[in-house]
Amino acid sequence: MPVEWQPVRQSRTHELVLQSIEEQVFAGKLRAGDRLPPERELAPVFGVSRSALREALRVLETIGVLVAQPGRGPDSGARIVRNPDDALGRLLRLHFALGSYSLHDVMEARVALERSSFAAAAKYAVDRDLDEASAVVHRMSQPGILPEEFNELDTQFHVMVATSSGNALTSTLTSAVRESVRPLILRALEEVDDWSATRQHLNAQHSELLRLVRTGHGEEAADLAELHIRGFHGTLVDDERTAEDADERTAGGDEERNEAGDAGRDEDGPGGRR
After folding, report:
1. Who contacts 49 (Cβ-Cβ below 8 Å, separation ≥6)?
2. What DSSP string runs through 236-257?
3. CB 226 within 8 A of CB 111
4. Which residue, 41, 95, 139, 140, could crosslink 100 as a Cys pair with Cβ 3.0–4.6 Å?
5. Could you tell me which CATH class the domain 13-80 is placed in?
6. Angle at the Cα of 176 (from 174 to 179), degrees rounded to 5?
7. What pLDDT score does 251 carry?
8. pLDDT higher than 50, residue 274
9. Model confidence pLDDT, tens digit, residues 254-263
10. Which DSSP symbol is given to 73?
11. Bridge partner list, 101
12. How far is CA 67 from the centre of its chain?
């Protein structure tokens, strides 16, 4: 069915352009892989400026449903894609940084998602998927590996297992949640007292998780996945709570000192000292 573009109202133009494109996606007239007409053709159809059209296209690119290729060749222009992982990860990371979610919230979400994915992987994962995950675990076992690379491979491992479970949404959410705290986990890895021992301990758990999945022990894999997440991620939650408690004590002390100062000024006020 051909896509029929309609002019849009001029108020909040880029949002109306965005809405029109979304409607074409929801109606099934635009699908992943479809290419939008060039800006010079699409802007007049909408009845908007090319700058307003570009703004709408940038929003779509940010949320992972469109990719724009500059240039004049056959591959140039904007194309509809399905790329939710990066977009959701970026969104969650920003909201986490803004305080929309606590570390405890993120940890509990990870536990719920990964218990499900490891249990399902024990039923549905194929050898090829598990072989790829095993190769990642092997790379993490190299003695000279640094926290940054380990953290990257760790994310890959957990997302690979989620993908092997056969549930695309679980895989996307696992990737997004893990991505949201990646900088914090990296900083924690870099600050551990004994990096070699920490790396070996975490990777021993990865190896055991893979063994349990390969042998079909889904519940045991789910239990170990939860222990694995709560073990290291849980220390970050404890650190966050300790910092929050310290902030509350500092704020409480400041308030008490302010109240004491106010009381002293009241006694020394217009009525004079008592």
Report:
1. 13, 43
2. HHHHHHHHHHHHHHHHHHHHHH
3. yes
4. 95
5. mainly alpha
6. 105
7. 55
8. no
9. 566 666 666 6
10. S
11. none
12. 19
Paired tokens of 48 = 């908007």
Query: Which has the closest alpha carbon to 203: 125, 127, 149, 240?
Result: 149
What's 85-249's CATH class?
Answer: mainly alpha
The alpha carbon torsion through 89, 109, 242, 93 (nearest 10 deg) reads: 10
Q: Model's pTM, two decimal places?
A: 0.71
- Angle among Cα 106, 110, 116 to the nearest 5 degrees reads 150
Residue 86's identity, in one-letter code, is D
Extents of the domains making up the chain: 13-80, 85-249
The stretch 15-31 carries a mean pLDDT of: 85
For residue 17, count other CB atoms closer than 10 A to its CB: 25
Q: Is the pLDDT of residue 55 over 70?
A: yes
**Which amino acid makes up residue 177?**
V
Q: Which residue has the tokens 């957990």?
A: 158
